[in-house]
Amino acid sequence: MDKIKVGINGFGTIGKRVADAIDAQDDMVVVGVTKTGPSFGCKLAVKKGFPLYCTSDDQEKINSFSNEGYKCNGGISDLLSVSQVVVDCAPGKMGAENLEKYQSAGVKYIFQGGEKHDLTGLSYTSSANHIQNLNARGTRVVSCNTTGLSRTLVPLFDQCGSLKVECTMIRRAADPGDSSKGPINAIKPVLKVPSHHGPDVMTVKPEIEINSLAVAVPTTIMHVHSIIADLPEGHGLSTDSIIRMWEQTPRVIVMNGSKDRISTTAEVMEMARDIGRKWGDLHEIFVWEDGVKLVGNRLYYFQAIHQESDVIPENVDCIRSLMGTEEDWVKSANKTDESIARYYSTS
Ligand SMILES: NC(=O)c1ccc[n+]([C@@H]2O[C@H](COP(=O)([O-])OP(=O)(O)OC[C@H]3O[C@@H](n4cnc5c(N)ncnc54)[C@H](OP(=O)(O)O)[C@@H]3O)[C@@H](O)[C@H]2O)c1
Questions:
Q1: Which of 30, 265, 273, 281 has its CA 20 to 30 Å from the CA of residue 340?
Q2: CA-CA-CA-CA torsion for 133, 135, 140, 143, nearest 10 degrees?
Q3: Nearest-angstrom CA–CA distance, 342 and 213
Q4: Known catalytic residues?
Q5: pLDDT in tens, 145-197
Q6: Span from the CA of 43 to the centroid of ligand 1 (angstroms)
Q7: Cβ–Cβ under 8 Å, residues 150 and 128
Q8: What's the CA angle centered on 251, arms 250 and 254, to 5 degrees?
Q9: If we measure between CA atoms, which residue out of 212, 213, 225, 210 comes closest to residue 287?
Q10: What's the CATH fold of domain 4-142+311-346?
């Protein structure tokens, strides 16, 4: 079978990771990545052998790459002409403009969580609605927070049939490479309540009733979610059985804060570096075993989200869903994750 040809529009925090994850697979190939102009990030594309294109079709901008010694293969239209699907990794809220280009080029498209659900009318997470996205023209992989919530809540919902959830997102202020955002010495509540994060889960799993609050705190490395979920009467679950269920769930890691001495996000990130993940990434959602407690019908737990990387394998599964090449999300997730693990152990 021919490999799926994937263009990546935007080669920043998410784009460079998605490109690597696709490069790790045997059923898809990166046909090009875009930058707005020459910058240090172009070196990575060259090193990886990803053909470089410009985000614009403006000839002057295209030429600016060669002035700095980079070979630019053309503008976004040229990239789209050799792609079957484009993964849009542009900064949030640029979607509407880019969508027109994708539609007129006749390529399939995947946006990221910085765009609203309304842009595509369809959203995606591997565990919640892979099948509903099969063969669709385009979709949106939900944000890192929504992906994190879906990873643990969808299997819980599948076990007990109904869920009412309240959660607080304790959000990192900025990505580590981002020098323009804050706060650096304050805690900033998101005053639009409820925040969009929880309700966004309902774009992929409408059956889960969920609301959220959010606060940004001065850290760059992870988000933490503090979650309260009300289970239905007669759910038949226990604290232990819920923990065992998450241990069996793809892309969820359960560890014990006390026994494993891993009680902060700093230690979780150190563990990710120890296991050799590139950029110190952790694709999995991290659940503290000793922070899980079921009291009657009410479940309390904490989880940590590596904001720059949990959505990366979802983009790979999403490509297979849009192209209709794998209907079973678990099979896709296993293939994606095993290929990525192999890739990093050898590259
Ligand atoms: N960062 C996270 O933690 C995170 C997590 C989950 C989802 N997301 C979402 O993922 C998307 C990308 O975020 P990011 O953090 O990767 O942003 P980023 O680091 O700022 O990277 C954005 C990339 O898009 C390029 N770009 C600029 N204008 C463009 C345009 N008009 N069309 C196409 N590309 C353009 C930039 O080019 P230059 O490099 O030349 O400037 C850059 O390579 C957003 O929707 C965001 O909300 C981000």
A1: 265
A2: 50
A3: 38
A4: 144
A5: 999 999 999 999 999 999 999 999 999 999 999 999 999 999 999 999 999 99
A6: 17
A7: yes
A8: 100
A9: 225
A10: Rossmann fold (3.40.50)
Residues of the chain with CATH 3.40.50.720: 4-142+311-346
What pLDDT does 151 receive?
98
Ligand 1 atom nearest to CA at 172? 3
Q: Which atom of ligand 1 is nearest to the CA of 34?
A: 34
Cβ–ligand 1 distance for 15 under 6 Å, the answer yes
Helix orientation angle between 239-247 and 144-160, rounded to the nearest 10 degrees = 120
Per the rule left: phi > 0, alpha: psi between -120 and 50, beta: everything else, 215 is beta
Q: Is 313 in the pocket of ligand 1 (CB under 6 A)?
A: no
Instruction: Give the distance (Å) from ligand 1 centre to CA of residue 94.
Output: 9
Tokens of 67: 């002035």
Task: Spell out the residues 6+ positions from residue 89 whose beta carbon is closer than 8 angstroms to its own.
Answer: 8, 9, 10, 11, 12, 14, 15, 18, 112
Name the H helices within 229-280.
239-247, 265-274
Nearest residue by C-alpha to atom 1 in ligand 1:
308
Rounded to the nearest angstrom, the distance between the alpha carbon of 290 and the centre of ligand 1 is 36
Kindly give the parts of the chain with pLDDT less than 70: 346-347
DSSP strands (E only) in 154-264: 164-172, 188-189, 209-217, 223-230, 252-255
Query: How far away, in angstroms, is 9 Cα from ligand 1 center?
Result: 9
pLDDT score at 347: 58
CATH topology of domain 144-305: Dihydrodipicolinate Reductase; domain 2 (3.30.360)
Q: CATH 3.30.360.10 in the chain: give the residue spans.
A: 144-305
